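Sequence, please.
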């Protein structure tokens, strides 16, 4: 239970509730242990002697003891709920903050489906285990030890029954622990796979319908669902053996107590009330062991979940700001790539380059990574403030990878990237991102008003600034046509907007942040050429032009760029203006001619 113990720190702020709950449970257990003794008194001193005064008086004591026990049990439940739910909320919040702090590389490895399971099901499993622990961590041992002691006091001879029963129960518990822990760990992993399938299907439902692949996706879902069901059944079937073993042991103990105790009652060596009290204590002892078996199953499952949560909490971001990183950064926008190489290889390998002595050439990286694993290879270029550089090339040439290195979503494997001469690794992450605006091809919008989506990067922006950004992005006109204008609610992921509308809102969001550098990663792919031209004209008329890095698939996007980089297999195959490349680059000329039809640019 090592992982579960590590998470115990989240219970520390609520230690008062966590202490009160077991204390109140101890009160309830004490009252429960008194009941058999009071029953013994009623039978042996009241009923046997026909003394109604003893029967009534002891009965009233039993009622009072039961009410006190009830108060203790209710109080324990209330404080357990307060401590447990607060623990779960804090754990979930910390886990979510940790996920937000992780780098793209970490998230690539952990996967979205697995993270959703950890934030929901795994946290719930651990929270329920903690609540169960607070209820029973005093009840079970106190009831077990108290019942054993009182059973021995009641009848030392019959107490020898425990010598036979307890080893049987302990052997069953050890077997259950060894069997169920890995099984429940596999249950959680299969739940990850099911969540991943569901997430992909819900996000890609339009593609599924467009290609009539519903049957295929149903088969995928049923495969993951049936796999989870089978593993769950297997784990529960194994743990279900616990109850029959415990009940068999309990019934065998009761039969043995009646057999041997009945003989002693007939022989006069034991009173009937003592026998009944002993059977009560025997039942309480074995019930305590049954509760332990239930706890074992519960904690086996929670330990698997706790280990998965701890894996995320122990994860260190692949990319971290240096202690001496620049906390504030207001660049002019000069961007330079100096012999940059990059691979989506192991983050620990890439991290070895994150120091002041990082080589500006590939050097030994060619031995570690190998040429075939590199996405970018020895890329160098410089963009002056206010200029526009366009990245053009076939799919897989490395355009988006290059763009992702500028805001340091990933770190270079070799060489370095500088903004105004400062290595991006020497700039605090928040300061770097505040200087860069990003608009992606897949425009992610959040549920809420259009106004708030545009304001996402600058929550303090005025309404006039929001409208100005939307006008530059050519979004103001269609937003104004909505009944509620800028207060119109965007559905989940912008489902109630067209692709072009989502992209223009994303561009407005990037512009509103007033960045020194703007990265457009094919962010106008769903916009018609005429609207794209208007966006480019609006950007050109800005009083202070940001440096722009434009990833594009169509020539019309890059015609007016100050510099065009043609990427081929991760290398810069050619660079220059449109006219220069048309004259000197066969690759560029091929791309250009393939998109021309009777002198017109073919629309995507």
């Amino acid at each position: 239970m090592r992982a579960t113990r590590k998470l115990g720190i989240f219970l520390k702020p609520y230690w008062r509730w966590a202490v009160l709950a077991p204390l109140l449970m101890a009160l309830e257990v004490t009252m429960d242990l008194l009941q058999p003794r009071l029953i013994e008194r009623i039978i042996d001193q009241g009923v046997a002697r026909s003394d109604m005064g003893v029967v009534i008086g002891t009965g009233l004591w039993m009622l009072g003891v039961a009410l006190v026990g009830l108060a203790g049990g209710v109080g324990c439940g209330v404080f357990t709920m307060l401590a447990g739910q607060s623990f779960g909320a804090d754990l979930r919040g910390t886990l979510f903050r940790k996920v937000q702090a992780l780098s793209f590389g970490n998230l690539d490895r952990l996967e979205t489906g697995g993270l959703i399971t950890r934030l929901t099901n795994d946290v719930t499993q651990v929270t329920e285990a903690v609540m169960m622990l607070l209820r029973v961590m005093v009840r079970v041992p106190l009831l077990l030890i108290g019942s054993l002691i009182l059973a021995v006091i009641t009848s030392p001879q019959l107490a020898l029954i425990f010598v036979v029963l307890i080893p049987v129960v302990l052997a069953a518990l050890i077997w259950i622990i060894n069997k169920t822990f890995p099984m429940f760990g596999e249950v959680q992993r299969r739940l990850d796979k099911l969540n991943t399938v569901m997430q992909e299907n819900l996000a890609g439902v339009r593609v599924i319908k467009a290609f009539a692949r519903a049957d295929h996706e149903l088969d995928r879902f049923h495969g993951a669902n049936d796999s989870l069901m089978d593993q769950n059944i297997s784990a529960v079937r194994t743990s279900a053996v616990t109850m029959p073993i415990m009940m068999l042991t309990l019934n065998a103990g009761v039969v043995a107590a009646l057999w041997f105790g009945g003989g002693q009652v007939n022989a006069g060596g034991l009173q009937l009330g003592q026998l009944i009290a002993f059977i009560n204590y025997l039942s309480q002892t074995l019930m305590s062991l049954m509760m332990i078996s239930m706890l074992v199953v519960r904690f086996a499952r929670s330990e698997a979940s706790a280990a998965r949560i701890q894996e995320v909490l122990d994860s260190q971001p692949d990319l971290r700001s240096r202690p001496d990183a620049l906390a504030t950064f207001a660049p002019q926008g000069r961007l330079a790539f100096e012999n940059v190489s990059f691979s989506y290889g192991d983050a620990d390998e890439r991290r070895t380059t994150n120091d002041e002595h990082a080589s500006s050439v590939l050097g030994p990286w060619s031995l570690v990574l190998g040429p075939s694993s590199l996405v970018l290879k020895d890329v160098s270029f410089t963009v002056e403030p206010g200029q526009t550089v366009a990245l053009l090339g076939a799919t897989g040439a490395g355009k988006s990878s290059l763009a992702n290195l500028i805001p340091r979503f990933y770190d270079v494997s070799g060489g370095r990237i500088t903004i105004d001469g400062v290595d991006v690794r020497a700039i605090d992450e928040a300061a770097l991102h505040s200087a860069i605006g990003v608009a992606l091809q897949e425009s992610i919008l959040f549920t809420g008003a259009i106004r708030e989506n545009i304001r996402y990067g600058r929550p303090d922006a005025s309404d006039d600034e929001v409208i100005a950004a939307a006008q530059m992005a050519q979004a103001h006109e269609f937003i104004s046509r909505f009944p509620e204008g800028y207060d119109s609610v965007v559905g989940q992921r912008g489902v109630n907007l067209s692709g072009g509308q989502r992209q223009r809102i994303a561009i407005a969001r990037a512009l509103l942040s007033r960045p020194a550098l703007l990265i457009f990663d094919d962010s106008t792919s769903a916009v018609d050429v005429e609207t794209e031209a208007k966006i480019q004209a609006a950007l050109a008329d800005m009083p202070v032009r940001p440096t722009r890095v434009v990833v594009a698939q169509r020539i019309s996007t890059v015609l007016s760029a100050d510099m065009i980089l043609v990427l081929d297999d991760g290398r810069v195959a050619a660079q220059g203006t449109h006219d220069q490349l048309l004259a000197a680059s066969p690759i560029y000329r091929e791309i250009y001619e393939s998109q021309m039809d009777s002198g017109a640019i073919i629309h995507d």
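The domain at 2-314 is CATH 1.20.1560.10 (ABC transporter transmembrane region fold).
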